[in-house]
Amino acid sequence: MKSYIAALGTAVPEYRTSQSAIADFMANVLQLNPSEKQRLYALYRASGIQYRHSVLPDYGDTSRRSFYPGTANLEPFPSIEQRMDTYEQEALMLSYKAAKNCLRQLPQFDARQITHLIFVSCTGMYAPGVDIELIHKLGLSHQVQRTAINFMGCYAAFNALKVADSIVRAHADANVLIVCTELCTLHFQKGKNEDNLLANALFADGSSAALVTGQKFDNVIQLAIEQFYCDLVPEASQEMAWQIGNHGFEMKLSSYVPEAIKQGIYQLTQQLMQQISWNIDEADIAVQERPDLYAIHPGGKRILQVIEQALSMEKDDNRYAYQILQQYGNMSSATILFVLKALQQGLTVGDNDKSVLGLAFGPGLTLESMLLRVESL
């Protein structure tokens, strides 16, 4: 029994702000001196990001502040309770838009056939949660089985896909809807330390959805799920972390992370390929039978570059990741499905049987990989 990613959908909030405007916001509220501003603007220019979306208008138009106080230093700074209230107000509609966009790709599929719902988020939570609210808003059966995957970070969609794959392989009639929704911009922190500056330069809001099923649909290019493999880099476990503070979720994001990923990604890919009898040339660190396509989580421009070096990739191999990074930034768990959708939209029947290598990373330091195959007939 095979499982397939049959459809993908995405949604972003209405407030779209240029990276340069966000840099101006940060420089002002952090009250940076001239040399600090120079370093900040250099960081934002080097990010590879042009635009990001937020459920808040505050980052692009100071006259429209709806969340942060109008004071120069944003005091009193919003509490975790205020941030979670906004998450509860905004997460459902964004999730609904992504799910509807996904299901719209398959007009021949009746949403009432959905048997399982997996909801993914690391930027907010409440109960009854988005999963139950989505069942009502989408008009799904009240008997839909629900799974929540929380607080795992940027690689969480891989775990959702693993769960969906297992469900479909075990139950021939299962149809699993995955929805990943992240409102990262609710958790802006004012510290001038490296962790905060990096996080503030990268993260954005977005939602994505995938339908995983055992069905084959006519005239639809689907992605067959073939294999997963994960690993940890224990020596880098403290280089990326995510904790709940009094004023939001606080991220630790060291500049060492790309190097740690570079050191671990070759071995990760080797183990994935060995599981399906692909061989890797140890001499030049290149896959002898290379993947045809790549879907890599754009955790940052430098991360994409070190992966290209480690796997002997061309920059064009990574074009979908760069495209999403440029237009949306890093939306945590939702991002990889944005990349897969961009890839899927570029496929034709001539791409039948091509392989797709997917990679993502997160706290732990966790490395996740998967192999998909294009099926167009």
Task: Write a short abstract of this structure.
This protein is α+β, with helices and mostly antiparallel strands.
Give the secondary structure arrangement, pairings included.
Elements: E1 4-11, E2 15-18, H1 19-29, H2 34-45, E3 51-54, H3 80-104, E4 116-121, H4 130-138, E5 145-150, H5 156-170, E6 175-183, H6 194-202, E7 205-213, E8 222-232, E9 240-245, E10 248-253, H7 257-275, E11 280-281, E12 286-287, E13 293-296, H8 301-310, H9 319-328, H10 335-345, E14 355-362, E15 366-375
Parallel strand pairs: 4-5, 4-6, 13-14
Antiparallel strand pairs: 1-7, 1-8, 2-3, 6-7, 8-15, 9-10, 11-12, 14-15
Can you offer a commentary on this structure?
This protein is α+β, with helices and mostly antiparallel strands and 377 residues long. It has two domains: 4-213, Peroxisomal Thiolase, Chain A, domain 1, CATH 3.40.47.10; 226-375, Peroxisomal Thiolase, Chain A, domain 1, CATH 3.40.47. It is built from ten helices and 15 strands. Helix 7 (257-275) crosses helix 8 (301-310). The radius of gyration is 20 Å and the shape is globular. Residues 278-288 have low confidence and may be disordered.
Structure keywords:
globular, single chain, Peroxisomal Thiolase, Chain A, domain 1, 10 helices, alpha+beta, two-stranded antiparallel sheet, 377 residues, 15 strands
Number of strands: 15
Task: Name the helix and strand elements from N-terminus to C-terminus, one letter apiece.
Answer: EEHHEHEHEHEHEEEEHEEEHHHEE
| Count of helix runs | 10
Q: Sum up the overall morphology in one term.
A: globular
Q: Regions with pLDDT < 50 over 5+ consecutive residues?
A: 278-288
Widest sheet, order of strands: 5-4-6-7-1-8-15-14-13
Per CATH, the class of the largest domain reads Alpha Beta
- Tell me the structural class: alpha+beta
Named CATH topology of the largest domain? Peroxisomal Thiolase, Chain A, domain 1
Q: Estimate the mean pLDDT confidence.
A: 90
